[in-house]
Design a protein that fits this description.
By secondary structure, the protein is α+β, with helices and mostly antiparallel strands. Helices cover 22% and strands 32% of the residues.
Length: 219
């Protein structure tokens, strides 16, 4: 394990250390998930679920050679059936020592967020633009410098038929985005992303000028 850790570039270890310092909201539950193997030589991925404020905190550090860059597990608790899940997401930090012209740097952050809302809210033609604005505002409010940002916002309509016909139509909003952090200090970027996931979930408080959605969890 020591030899494996020694082979991890110091820049990537430094970035992992900065992730460890991130202060995320208590409603956000983070778990290490398998990182994509083909996008970059080094990567770490976190999966997130946003629950109602009564849900317990669960945070698991990264495993593998990078694990020693994190402190020991701060404790975890399994969610109960009564927990109200409001949104989900993924945060992936990529590192290529050779850099990338597309990334405009050695690091790249790739994210995904999904939340459900009622059909009336989801049919708003401005929803995609609003979702992108949430990302930009979150990065600016956390003073997380970045460049080469891009992404797509997608609305997914779910209709029920037959024995399920009485269920109301729902629309999920998905945001897939990526950007290049200005340095290997990515603490503010993870904090901004966690704020953004909570914004998708409609949880206050929110950054100035951002209007939150109501609780959209449907039975």
């Amino acid at each position: 394990m020591v030899n494996a850790l020694a082979q991890v570039p110091s820049e990537f270890l430094s970035a992992l250390g900065s992730l460890r310092k991130a202060q995320c909201r208590s409603e956000l539950r983070l778990d290490e998930i398998p990182a994509p193997a083909r996008l970059a030589p080094y990567a770490v991925a976190l999966g997130a679920e946003v629950f109602s404020p009564t849900a317990a905190i669960r945070q698991v550090p990264v495993h593998g050679p990078a694990a020693k860059a994190f402190a020991a597990n701060q404790g975890s608790s399994s969610s109960s059936e009564e927990d109200d899940e409001l949104a989900t997401g993924r945060f992936i930090l990529l590192y290529d020592p050779d850099g990338s012209a597309v990334w405009e740097g050695e690091f790249r952050i790739v994210t995904y967020i999904r939340a459900q809302m009622d059909a009336e809210m989801g049919n708003d033609s401005m929803l995609g633009s609003v979702a992108w604005t949430w990302l930009v505002d979150a990065l600016e409010n956390r003073a997380a410098p970045y460049r080469a940002a891009g992404g797509t916002a997608t609305r997914i309509l779910s209709e029920s038929f037959g024995t399920l016909a009485e269920r109301p139509d729902t629309i999920d909003i998905e945001l897939r985005a990526s950007w290049t952090p200005a340095s290997q200090d990515v603490q503010a970027h993870l904090e901004a992303w966690s704020d953004m996931v909570c914004t998708f979930a409609g949880l206050p408080p929110l950054p100035p000028g951002v209007t939150g959605l109501p609780n959209r969890r449907l039975n």
